[in-house]
Amino acid sequence: MEKSTFNKAGDVFYVICRISIGLFFFITGFNKLFHPVFQGYMLKTISSLGFSNPQFMANFVAFNEAFWGLLLLLGLFTRFSSLSLIVIMLVALVTKDLHSIPTELVPIDPKVGIRPMDNFTWLTYFFFLPQVLFIMLLGMFSLYGYKAFGIDWFVRRKGKSSGQETERYFNL
Question: What is the b/e burial string over 5-22, where b = at least 16 CB atoms within 10 angstroms of the residue's CB?
């Protein structure tokens, strides 16, 4: 496979990943804002974590998920929207999901006995958390920017053809 074909195929896959992750965050944030079941779940989660003013925080987080997810989906301010979503994922990871990793291994056969969790097994549980994968993908989007096919890309192309310098502004 020649290099240019590989780059184009890689760009297509990159855009599919960016659109998928953006769509995921937009839909989940939208549901947390407007769907009664998800509103209740989000409020319960925020309340259980001990945040002050849980209703405001639940709406704030849900709005930011939807807003930055939509921008990532559209490829607008790709780097900044990715960084914003990384912050949301890091807070979710630290406040909620790290605590879901067990501290002991309980085997199916009780004769074996409960064993303490070793570091290698802990890492296995850690990498199974979806937030870790989202943080990695969003990190890639924040480093590479829009790459191809997105509003940032179209603005950059238009700016280059008209002689304006817009890359610095739109490639945040």
Answer: eeeeeeeeebbeebbebb
